[in-house]
Amino acid sequence: MNSVTHPDRSGLASASALPFKIVSWNLLRRTGAAVDDVVALVAQEKPDLLLMQEATRAIGFLQDRIGGHYAWAPLPGRIHGLAMWSPKPFPNAPRVITLPAGALVHRVCQVLDLGAFGIANVHLSHGQMLNRRQLRRIVGELPQRAAVLGDYNIVGPAMIPGFRDVGPRRPTHAMVDVLPLRLDRCLARGLICHAHAVLPRGPSDHRPIVVHLGPAPEAHAPARFKGMAAAVARLRRADGSAGRGRRDPPG
Fold first, then answer.
1. Which CATH class is domain 12-217?
2. Residue 25 and residue 172: Cα distance in Å, rounded?
3. What pLDDT, in 10s, does the model give residues 232-250?
4. Fewer CB near the last or first residue (10 Å), C or N of the chain?
5. Annotated domain spans of the chain
6. pTM score of the predicted model
């Protein structure tokens, strides 16, 4: 059920300049959230884009229930994978990127180009070095304005230069129903998060997260870029002063 949607510039791209509501949810394959649960979530939250992890082939029946546009990227050799749903046509067909593989599970990432910014849907490996390698691979494929959402399986900071952790800070998963962890995250570059939330867990072992994203104005450019521009300006001024000194040596 790898759906292919035709580009439609009147769809998500036109809305992405506004605060754009994204919901991300790890469904927990087979024993977790089913189509009925996803339908209820869409009806409650009305997202501009829904990202899902551990989505099985059966989740594709979402289109039969509520329409919209759907793309599924199963993990190699697995019954589940990543999925995206939108009420409007995708401006571009989502790309699938192969990630550095672990010993047991081969991972992929879905990347959607919205025009104003890019979105990556992820379910990273559990290894704390491997999942950060996978994340670095993903951000190298993204435009300047971009966000990475999903199940990171990362404990502690992600440490990706240029990206800020803008999602909710509450725990989203309880390991063996005891240890609360914040595994579901949103890292962004060149974007502002206007609001965020963690939703009730439902039948999955993960809580959905919600973010409202919009492009950051130029005044909010990363400090390192503003600092670089200031340094270049100082060098130009210094070069101009030296040039004038060469033209008019003291007599």
1. alpha beta
2. 10
3. 455 555 555 444 443 433 3
4. C
5. 12-217, 221-251
6. 0.82
